[in-house]
Amino acid sequence: MQAVRPIPAVIAGDRSQRARLTGAILVLLLLITAVASLGWGASGTSLSRALSNLAAGRELAVQDRVVLLDIRLPRMVMGICVGASLAVSGALMQGLFRNPLADPGIVGVSSGASLGAISAIVLGGALPAAIAGWLGWALVPLAAFAGSWITTMLLYRIATRQGRTSVATMLLAGIALGAIMSAIGGLVILRANDSQLRDLTFWGLGSLAGATWPKLMVAVPIMAAGVLSAPALARGLNALALGEAAAGHVGIRVQRVKNRAILTVAAATGAAVAVSGGIGFVGIVVPHLLRLASGPDHRWLLVNSGLLGAVMLLWADMASRTLIAPAELPIGIVTAMIGGPFFLWILLRNRGVLDL
Amino acid sequence: MSLIAQDITVAIGRKRILDGVSIEAQAGQFTAIVGPNGSGKTTLMRALTGELPHRGRIALGGDEIDSLSPEELARRRGVLPQAAALSFPFTVAEVVRIGLEARGERDDALIPAVLAAVDLPGFSGRLYQELSGGEQQRVQLARVLAQVWQPVGVDGPRWLFLDEPVSSLDVAHQLTVMRLAADYARRGGGVLAVMHDLNLTALFAQKVILMGRGKVLAQGCPAEVMTDAILSDAYGCALRVNAVPAQGIWILPQASLPEAC
C-alpha cells in the first residue's frame, strides 16, 4: 500500500482528474466488452451456459471448449492487443509529427509493415530451412516490424526540416511511400502460389479471424512491449508539442525521444499488421476522441488510447462477426466505414489550423 | 557568475551569419542584444542556447554548456522562443506545467503565481490556441518563468534567454514584461534579451550588445553604446538619441519610470 497523498487543490485547466476518470471508465468498459466478446459469435456456444455448466461441476462439451478457448479467447486477446497497438501507435505518431492527422495507416507505415509481412509469407520458403525453422512464426512479425521501422524513419526524414514537420509534406510523402511499398508488395505477390494468394487477400482486408495461440505467442509480447513502454515517452512528447528546440530547452533529449517513439510505433504497428492485416483508422479516431474528452496530455492520452483502442476493436470485431452472419465481414471494412468519414470530419474541422 | 561566449562563428553554406562574435553578460543584469534586421541577433541567441551548431566556446557560470546535460541546462536557464505554435489543444495550465516539470517538480500551486506575474490571472483554464498572439507570448513567458522561478538557485544564478519578448505586446504589457525581466535580474538572475525597441532597451538594460553584419559593433552600458554616431551607423539611418521631435506628438513611457543605468 502506498501512503495516501493529500489531494491537491484543482487548478482550472488541469484536466488530469478528468483523464483519470476517463481511464477508470475505459478499464470497466474493456472488462465488460471482453467478456461480451467471449459470448458473442456465429456458433450457438454461450458463455453463461458454459460457466453455469462449469459451476455445476459438469464437463464442458468439446465443441464449447474449442469455440471458447481456441477460437474466441485468442481472438479476444488479439483484438485487445491489436486495438491497443494501433491506437497507441497513432497517438505516438501524432505526438512525434506534432499533428493530429498522422496515423500509421494513412502515412504508409502500415504499407511498409505489409510489405515486410508479404515478403515473409511469400519468400520465407526460400530461406535456408535451418533459419526458417528457427524463426518460425516470428518471421512474419519481425519482417513487418522491419518494414514499418524503415518506412517511419524515411517518412520522418522527408517530412521534418529544421525541427518542424510540414503536414502537407508528411501526408504527401506518406502517400508516395505507401504507394511504393504497395507496388513492391504487388511484385512480391506475383510469386505467390494459390493458397498463399488466398491467405494474403483475406489478410490484406484485415481480420482477427486468424488468431491462434502460436501466432499470439510471438506477436503479443512485441505489441505489449510497445504499448507498455509508450507512456515513458509522455513527458517528451508533451514538450515536443512546443517544437523540437523548445523541447530541448526544457531538458528533453529530443533525439532519444524521437528514436524511441519511431521504434515503438514500428514494433507495435508491425506486429499488429503481421497478425491482423490492414485495419485502418483506429490510430486516428481513438486519440482524437480522447483529446476531446480529457485533453492532449500524453501522460493520460497514451494509456487511455490503449484502453479505448482495445474496446473499439473488440466492438468492430463483434460487428464484423454479426453484420452478415453466418459469413464474416473483414474488420478492416468496418473500421474504414467508421474511420474514413471521421478522418474527413477532423480534416474539415482543422482546415484553418493545419494550414493545408 | 556570467555568460561568456568567445569567438562564436555560425556559417550556413559558405555564408558566415556570425563571424567571431565574443560577448559577456553578467548575472544580476539585464543584457540586451540589439541591431538591425539580419544583423545576426537571433542567430547569436540560437547559438548561445545550443540550438545552432557553431564554432567557439560558450560558458554559463563557469561551465562549458556542451558539458552540461539537457536536464542540468534546463534547471539553469529558460529560453523564450520568438514564436511558438502549439500542435495540440493544451490549456494554459498544461503549457505552464511543461515548464514546471523541467526542473523535476510538480508544484502546481506555482501556476497561478506565474500567470499573475505575466498579467494573465485567471487564464489557466483557457485553451492556448484560442488566445491572441500577445497572450500566447505571455503564456510562453510564464512557462519559461515557471522553469527558473527562483533567480538564484543553490548552484548559482539562473538565466532567462528571451528572443524578442515584447514583439507582439501592447505598450502596457511591454512594460509589464520588461519590469518582470528587470526585476528578475535585480534579484540576482541573469537576463539576456534580443530587443527591437531601442527606447525600452535604453530604459531597462544595464548592458547593450549592438550587432551588425554578423559582428559585434559595440557592447557596454547603454550610454556608451547608444550614441547618435554608433546607432546611425549600425542602422543605416539618421538617429538622434534623446532628441524630442520639433513637431507632432511623442508617446513614450519614460515619464512614469525611474532612470536606468
How would you classify the helix and strand content of chain A by structural class? mainly alpha
> Main beta sheet of chain A, described?
2 strands, antiparallel
In the CATH scheme, the class of chain B would be Alpha Beta
The rounded distance between the terminal residues' Cα atoms of chain A is 51 Å
Figure out the total of helices of chain A.
16
The assigned CATH architecture of chain B is: 3-Layer(aba) Sandwich
Characterization of this structure:
The complex is a heterodimer of chains A (356) and B (261). Chain A is 73% helix and 1% strand. Chain A is built from 16 helices and 2 strands. Chain A has helices at residues 16-38, 47-55, 62-97, 109-123, 129-135, 139-159, 167-189, 194-205, 213-229, 234-240, 244-249, 254-276, 282-294, 298-322, 331-349, 351-354; strands at 160-161, 164-165. Chain A has a two-stranded antiparallel sheet. In chain A, helix 3 runs parallel beside helix 9, helix 6 (139-159) runs antiparallel to helix 7 and helix 14 crosses helix 15 (331-349). The mean pLDDT of chain A is 84. In chain B, the strands form 3 sheets. A 6-stranded mixed beta sheet of chain B has the order 6-9-10-3-11-12, with helices on both faces. A 4-stranded antiparallel beta sheet of chain B has the order 2-1-4-5, covered by helices on one side. A two-stranded antiparallel ribbon of chain B has the order 7-8. Chain B has one domain: Rossmann fold (3-Layer(aba) Sandwich), CATH 3.40.50.300. In chain B, helix 6 (171-186) links the parallel strand 9 and strand 10 (190-194). Chain B starts with a strand and ends in a 26-residue tail after the last helix. With 261 residues, chain B is α/β, with parallel strands linked by helices. Chain B is globular and about 50 Å long. The interface between A and B is medium-sized, with 29 and 41 residues.
